Amino acid sequence: MTILTKIVPALAGALAARGYETLTAVQTAVLAPEAAGVDLLVSAQTGSGKTVAFGIAIAPTLLGGENRFDNAGAPRALIIAPTRELAIQVRREFEWLYKDTGARIGSCVGGMDMRQERRALEQGVHIVVGTPGRLRDHITRGSLDISQLRAVVLDEADEMLDLGFREDLEFILAAAPAERRTLMFSATVPKPIAILAKRFQRNALRITASGESDQHDDIEYRTILVAPAERENAIINSLLYFDAQNALVFCATRDAVRHLASRLANRGFSVVSLSGELSQAERTNALQAMRDGRARVCVATDVAARGIDLPNLDLVIHADLPSNPETLLHRSGRTGRAGRKGICALIVPFHRRGSASRLLKLAKLEATSQPAPGPAEIDRKNRERILADPSLSEAAGDDETGFARELLAAFSAEQIAVAFLRQQLASRPAAEELSEARAPVFDPAKGERPDARFENGVWFSISVGRKHRAEPRWLLPLICKAGHVTKREIGSIRILDTESRFEIIADRAEGFAAAVLQHGTGEKGVVIQRADDSAKTETPAGAWAKKPHRKGPTSRAPKPGPDGPPKDRPQEKFKPKKFKPKKRPARA
Fold first, then answer.
1. CB contact burial 376-405 (16+ within 10 A = b; e otherwise)
2. In CATH, which superfamily holds the domain spanning 3-213?
3. Residues 475/481, Cβ–Cβ less than 8 Å
4. Element (H, E) at 460
5. Rounded to whole angstroms, how far apart are CA atoms 316 and 302?
6. Which are the contacts of 397, defined by CB distance < 8 A and separation ≥ 6?
7. What would the pLDDT profile of 427-454 be if each residue is shown by its tens digit?
8. Residue range 366-379: average pLDDT?
9. Which CATH superfamily is domain 445-545 in?
10. What does pTM read for this prediction?
11. Longest pairwise C-alpha distance within the chain
């Protein structure tokens, strides 16, 4: 007896034909005896097989003991997904899973033709998959009858709340029949999800699929360190180095997606893009190009890539670092799915190493650090791939053998091999040259930015440091105003305990020193002088709270608080002056 015997026979046959021999943790959990026929609140990560899980979970409820559906009318099941791509993906999964049941599946998705959706609903459907806003529109207009629903599934419930669909979800759930099953699938169960479940579910069984914490075990993480100006070259070289069948590159903004996709296309990559500004047809075409092999690289934003499942996706590149560990896990979870291995590469400029390290630590992930691959490493990889090309070891057909003899008669074996090699290399974009710069070794004793931008810069010190909560973001304008220099003329800023040191480009150092000597810093008690002559002096307590002592054209220094010294430092209290009316001369 196998686990498939617990599933409705028609669905078990579809799974067997699909090659399923074992089920994932979440799929096994929803088949437990205590989960039969009750509401479920399930924690399941993306890529854990949850679409098949809720498909097999609701099948007995929908079929009512039968093997096939009868004539289609009002839908029996409603699947709600946060995005168009995820809704379309769920429908595609249900089409093969429910094929032998005779199910008619409709969709109600934002961005698609509403008239076609209405006609499909009028002809009758058994299952409807849709996005919250479009489903509510159909219900309000009377084109979607949900009075016969037996099951409602909320897929990626936490994402739907994050995207602002709470009101739509509450409307749909309130309009659905009270006697129904409600299944909520969510990566996490924060307080808003718990409140929603308590309101619209009846004694829901809480399932936390075991083994989901190891969902990223099939993903190998790499941090690729690169000079900031060579970030795009590092992305190009990483794509060539790993040479994945399909790759997904994440950017932070739509503009960044447009720019990088254009750059990759110009370099010879078959690339498509996904961002919120594209129409549904354009997004569908882009994903289809990835599925059928017309494109191998997809550049996308986080929102546009929510829920998409691309086959043979072996590589995820973070062109821009994610803002939080949840986004990192969501992006990375596009690869390493269903037991397939994947690689996740974070492109990390030297000055963002600390941010990347903290991000990985919060996500409880470990990554191997490496420099960006150069042309030599890529050439070596290309040679290995060409030698391992399966076409070289395949037996020749009868028609091929004759032509091969003609080639050998006309050309030497070496000439034919050279021609083959040239064709192979011509099909691959050329690698980008990278500088020999390597990430400097961080030394806490030298401050927060040990990498110098100027070879012959002159170092100065300012008498505020980490103890005074000094930060480059408010030290920089102070230095610029004090010495009449621009940001481009300032190199590294190293923040120590009681002072900070900064570098001025050599040809501006004398002018900078003269300006500071003449006008001061604009802050009483704060001194700037050459680092060689400076002593590590403390900033007097309360100096930052006093009104700036102005000399010359300098302006007010940053205010204390978030951008200045600690709030618990002694501050001078504001004492309003007493109002004294002017004496008017007596009238004559």
1. ebbeebbeeeeeeeeeeeeeeeeeeeeeee
2. P-loop containing nucleotide triphosphate hydrolases (3.40.50.300)
3. no
4. strand 458-462
5. 12
6. none
7. 788 888 887 766 555 554 444 444 445 6
8. 90
9. RRM (RNA recognition motif) domain (3.30.70.330)
10. 0.58
11. 129
